[in-house]
Design goal:
The structure holds 2 protein chains of 2 kinds. By secondary structure, chain A is of the alpha/beta class. Chain A has 13 helices and 15 strands. In chain A, α5 (111-127) packs parallel to α7. Chain B has 2 domains: 6-178, no CATH class; 183-463, no CATH class. The chains are: A alpha/beta, B mainly alpha.
C-alpha cells in the first residue's frame, strides 16, 4: 500500500506545483482578449505594498490571471456545467441556433433610474426645443428573440420599459424599436455571439425607423470578417460556438473622423486580427467623436449614445455632413456647448435600455 | 488567505508542507507559528498585532492562574480578568458599531460609527484562547510554558478563520509531540480535497441562486423563494462543512487530530438532533463553558429555560453583529425548549419521514432568518415563501430546469448515501484506494478549473 500512497501524493502535488512553476518561469501575458481586460503581471515585492495588502491581492490575481491554459480551463468548466444541465453560464443564456444572450432580468433594471434618466434627456431636448430629437432605445437581443432563449428563461420586460419611455418623453420622438424588431425577428437582428446588433439587421432597421424610410443610404454591405466571436461568447468560452460575420457599409472616401482630438480611421481594419471585431466601427468608444464629409448637405447631427450607435453611424453619414457623437461615460465637458457651437440640426439618443436604466452618466447632460 | 484560492493551493500549501517535513521536530512549532502568522497577515497585516497581543496576554493568564492554584480568590480573579480581556477584545472589534447603532436608534444619540474592520477569525481564536484559560483554571490541563507552542495553538492556520473550534485539551498532547505516518498524511489529503470540492464545486455553484431569489425583494413566487432558501441551506452547509473538512485534513497532514464539526446535519429528525450534528465544536464550547457553569439542567426547569435562553441568544449573536442573528438564536431557543417539553415525545410517535420533514422545514426557515441581515427583508421574504405573491412562475421553472441536477447532487451529497454506495462496492484495499485517489484528483482538477474560471469565490464565514 505504501507505494499507492506515494504515487497518489506525488501526483496530487505535481498537479499543483507544475502549473505554478510554469507561471513563474514563462513570460507574462498582458492582455486577455476574451475577457477584454489587462491581466495582472508579476507583482513587485516591497514592504509598503505588503503592509497595504496590495502585494497580496496582486499576487492572488497574478496566479489566476497567468494560470497556464486559463482559457482552456474556463472552457472545460463550461463543458462541465453544460453537462449538468446549466442553461446559463457566466451571465449568458445558451440559446438555440448558436445564440448566446446576455442574461438581463427585470431585477437588473433600475426602474427609478430609468425614469430619471428619461427625464434628463427629455429636459435636454426641451431646453433645445427648436432642434428635433429622436430616441432609439435598443431592446437587448433576448427580449426580441424570445423563442431562441432557453425555455422559461427570463429577460427584462422591454414592453413595459417602452411604456415608461413613451409616457416620460414628451419632447423627444421615440421610435418603437421593440415592436419593429419583434415583427422582423427572422432577420438576423443581432450577432449570435455578441450583444450588439448587426449592421444588416438591427442597425439597418433602426436607421430606417429613424429616417422614416427616407434615408439616402442605399449601399450594399460588404463582408469584413467571418471570424467574430463576441462578448456573450466570451462569458462562456463555449467550444461549440460558431463565428459571426461582420459586415460594413461603405462610406465616402473623403470622410474624416476625429476621436478625442486625434484623427482615426472610420473603419479600424487593424481589428481584423484582434478578438473584438466590433471595434472596427470607429475603433470603439470615445468621449467625443466628430465625423465629417460623409456627404455635403451641410447638416449636423448630435448623437448621444452607447456602443450600439457605432454600427448605426455608417448609414447616417449619407444624411448628415457632420456627425458629433458623445459618449457620456467618457465625455466630461458640456454637451450644451456643443449644440451652441456646432449649429446642430438634430439630436439622436441611442442606448440599450437596461444599461440606460443603470447609467449614472446621463446627468452629465446638465454640465 | 482562504484555502480555496490559488495562492493557498499553489504557493502556501506546498511550501509550508515541504518546509515542515524538512524541518527537524523541535523546530516545527516555530515554523507553524510563523506560517500561521503569514497566513493571517495575508489579508489584514495590521491585525497580526492584535493576534500577538491575544497570544501574549492569554499565555500570561494561563501561567498566573496555575501559579495561584492554591489561592482560590486570586486564581478566580485572574480568570475573570482573562475572560473580560478576551470578551472585551471580541466586543470592541465585532460589536462596537452594532451597539452604537442601537444606542442611536433607541435614544437618538447621533453617535458616529467607528467602522472597525472585523479581524478575521477573531470569534474563533478568542473562543479557543478562553477554552485554554478556563481549563487551566479547572485544573484540566497544565499551563503551556513555551510561548511558541502556545502561540502556534492560538493561531494554527488550518482552523484559524472558520473553525472547528479546537479546545486546548483536544490537542494538548499533540502540541508537544505528534507523529504522522504516510497513511495519516494520505487520509488528510483526501479529507482536504473533499472539503475543497464541497466549497468550490458545490457551495460556490449554488450560492447565486439565493442571491437571485433575494433580488426579488420579497416579490417572488413561493417556489422561487423556497428554491432560494434551499439554495442558501446547501450553500452554507457545503461552504462551512467544506471548510471544516479542509481544516481537519490539513491538521492530519501536520499530525493533529481536530474534532469533527459536522455529522450530516440535514439527516436530522429534530432540531435537538440537528444541533448535535451542526457546528459541533461551537455547541460543545457553549455547553462546556457557559451552559453547565450556569447550572445547566440541574437547578429546575425555569432555571434551565433561562440558561437555554442565555446560551441561544449568545449563540445567535456570536454568528454576527445583527438583530437577525439574535432572532435566529432565539428561534432555536423556542424550538429546542418546545422539543424538550413535549415535541420530542410526539415526534417519536410519528413515522421517520415526518421527523425529517419537520426538521428540514424548520432548518430552512431558520436559514432565511439567518441570511436576511437586512431585517426588513425578512417578513416579505417569508411572506413570499407562503404564497403572498403566487405559487409558481416561469422563472422558477427555469431555475428548476437549469439547476435541478445540481440540487439533486447537493441533496445526495449532504447525506451518507455516497459513503454507503462506496462501501457497497466492497472493493479490496488497493482497488478502493485507487478509486478514491482517482476521484480525488478529478475533484482537484475540477476545483482548480472552476477557481480559475469563476471569480465568484467569497467565503461565507469570513464575518465571524
Amino acid at each position: 500500500m505504501k507505494k499507492f500512497y506515494l504515487i497518489f501524493i506525488c501526483t496530487f502535488f505535481a498537479a499543483i506545483i507544475v502549473p505554478t512553476a510554469v507561471i513563474f518561469a514563462s513570460a507574462d501575458r498582458d492582455f486577455s482578449d476574451n475577457e477584454n481586460r489587462t491581466l495582472q503581471t508579476a507583482p513587485l515585492f516591497d514592504l509598503e505594498s505588503v503592509l497595504s495588502g496590495d502585494f497580496q491581492s496582486e499576487l492572488t490575481d497574478y496566479l489566476s490571471d497567468q494560470f497556464p491554459l486559463r482559457d482552456k480551463l474556463t472552457a472545460l468548466g463550461t463543458r462541465a456545467k453544460k453537462l449538468l444541465g446549466y442553461r446559463d453560464i457566466g451571465g449568458a443564456y445558451l440559446g438555440s441556433d448558436g445564440y448566446y444572450f446576455e442574461k438581463i432580468t427585470q431585477n437588473d433594471v433600475n426602474e427609478e433610474k430609468l425614469v430619471s434618466n428619461l427625464e434628463l434627456i427629455n429636459a435636454f431636448s426641451k431646453q433645445n426645443s427648436k432642434i428635433p430629437s429622436t430616441a432609439l432605445l435598443v431592446p437587448a437581443a433576448g427580449t426580441v428573440l424570445r423563442e431562441k432563449l432557453p425555455k422559461n428563461a427570463q429577460m427584462y420586460d422591454a414592453q413595459k420599459l417602452y411604456s415608461t419611455a413613451e409616457s416620460t418623453l414628451s419632447a423627444v420622438r421615440l421610435c418603437d424599436l421593440y415592436s419593429l424588431f419583434c415583427d422582423n425577428s427572422d432577420d438576423e437582428l443581432y450577432y449570435r455571439t455578441d450583444h450588439h446588433w448587426t449592421t444588416c439587421g438591427g442597425a439597418r432597421l433602426a436607421y430606417e425607423a429613424f429616417s422614416n424610410g427616407k434615408g439616402a443610404c442605399n449601399m450594399e454591405p460588404e463582408l469584413y470578417s467571418d471570424s467574430f466571436l463576441g462578448t456573450t461568447y466570451s462569458k462562456t468560452l463555449d467550444s461549440a460556438a460558431q463565428c459571426d460575420s461582420v459586415y460594413l457599409i461603405p462610406v465616402s472616401e473623403g470622410i474624416t473622423v476625429t476621436a478625442d482630438g486625434e484623427e482615426v480611421p472610420f473603419y479600424d481594419e487593424s481589428t481584423a486580427n484582434e478578438k473584438d471585431k466590433y471595434r472596427v466601427f470607429l475603433g470603439g468608444n470615445h468621449g467625443l467623436t466628430v465625423i465629417d464629409g460623409g456627404c455635403d448637405n451641410g447638416k449636423t447631427l448630435l448623437v448621444i449614445k452607447d456602443s450600439y450607435a457605432n454600427s448605426l453611424v455608417p448609414y447616417l453619414t449619407y444624411d448628415y455632413e457632420t456627425i458629433v457623437m458623445i459618449d457620456l461615460r467618457y465625455y466630461m465637458l458640456s454637451p450644451q456647448s456643443i449644440i451652441d457651437e456646432m449649429q446642430v440640426d438634430e439630436i439622436l439618443y441611442v442606448f440599450e435600455m437596461s444599461a440606460f436604466s443603470n447609467d449614472t452618466n446621463i446627468v452629465k447632460l446638465n454640465f | 488567505m482562504v484555502f480555496s484560492s490559488t495562492v493557498f493551493l499553489c504557493l502556501f500549501l506546498p511550501t509550508v508542507l515541504g518546509a515542515y517535513y524538512i524541518c527537524p521536530k523541535q523546530g516545527r512549532n516555530l515554523l507553524l507559528l510563523i506560517a500561521s502568522l503569514v497566513f493571517y497577515a495575508w489579508g489584514e497585516p495590521k491585525y497580526v498585532l492584535l493576534m500577538l497581543l491575544s497570544i501574549a496576554a492569554n499565555y500570561l493568564f494561563g501561567i498566573l492562574i496555575e501559579k495561584f492554584k492554591n489561592d482560590e480568590s486570586k486564581k478566580k480573579l485572574t480568570l475573570i480578568i482573562s475572560i473580560v480581556f478576551d470578551i472585551g477584545l471580541l466586543c470592541v472589534f465585532k460589536y462596537t458599531d452594532f451597539a452604537i447603532e442601537n444606542i442611536n436608534r433607541a435614544f437618538g444619540a447621533g453617535l458616529d460609527l467607528v467602522y472597525l474592520a472585523l479581524p478575521i477569525g477573531i470569534s474563533f481564536y478568542t473562543f479557543q484562547a478562553m477554552s485554554y484559560t478556563i481549563d487551566v483554571y479547572r485544573g484540566k490541563t497544565e499551563a503551556q510554558r513555551n510561548i511558541i507552542s502556545f502561540g502556534m495553538y492560538i493561531c494554527l492556520f488550518p482552523q484559524l478563520i472558520a473553525g472547528p473550534i479546537v479546545r486546548y485539551t483536544d490537542i494538548a498532547a499533540e502540541i508537544d509531540d505528534r507523529r504522522i505516518d504516510l497513511q495519516g498524511f494520505t487520509d488528510g489529503l483526501f479529507r482536504f480535497t473533499v472539503g475543497l470540492g464541497k466549497k468550490v464545486l458545490l457551495a460556490n455553484q449554488i450560492g447565486v441562486l439565493w442571491d437571485e431569489a433575494l433580488a426579488f425583494g420579497g416579490h417572488s413566487s413561493a417556489l422561487m423563494a423556497w428554491l432560494g432558501a434551499i439554495a442558501y441551506a446547501f450553500r452554507i452547509y457545503f461552504d462551512f462543512s467544506g471548510y471544516s473538512d479542509m481544516a481537519i485534513g490539513l491538521g492530519r497532514m501536520l499530525g493533529f487530530s481536530f474534532p469533527e464539526n459536522f455529522r450530516y446535519p440535514y439527516e436530522s429528525r429534530s432540531i435537538t438532533e440537528f444541533w448535535r450534528r451542526w457546528h459541533i465544536t461551537l455547541g460543545t464550547w457553549f455547553r462546556e463553558y457557559l451552559y453547565i457553569p450556569l447550572g445547566g439542567n440541574r437547578r429546575g426547569l425555569p432555571r434551565q429555560a433561562l440558561n437555554l435562553l442565555i446560551v441561544w441568544a449568545l449563540t445567535g449573536l456570536w454568528h454576527g453583529a445583527g438583530w437577525n442573528f439574535v432572532l435566529w438564536g432565539l428561534y432555536f431557543f423556542v424550538i429546542l425548549l418546545a422539543e424538550k417539553l413535549f415535541l420530542l415525545k410526539w415526534l417519536d410517535k410519528l413515522p421517520k419521514f415526518a421527523g425529517h420533514i419537520y426538521a428540514l422545514l424548520l432548518i430552512v426557515l431558520g436559514w432565511v432568518v439567518f441570511a436576511c441581515d437586512d431585517v426588513s427583508m425578512l417578513l416579505p421574504y417569508l411572506g413570499s415563501m407562503f404564497g403572498a405573491n403566487g405559487f409558481a412562475s416561469g422563472q422558477d421553472l427555469y431555475y428548476l430546469a437549469s439547476r435541478g441536477a445540481l440540487l439533486v447532487i447537493l441533496a445526495v451529497g449532504s447525506t451518507q448515501l455516497p459513503k454507503i454506495a462506496f462501501n457497497k462496492l466492497q472493493l479490496n484495499e488497493k482497488a478502493g484506494f485507487s478509486l478514491k485517489a482517482a476521484l480525488c484528483l478529478c475533484v482537484l482538477v475540477l476545483s482548480v478549473t472552476l477557481l480559475i474560471s469563476d471569480s465568484y469565490n467569497p467565503f461565507l464565514y469570513f464575518r465571524f
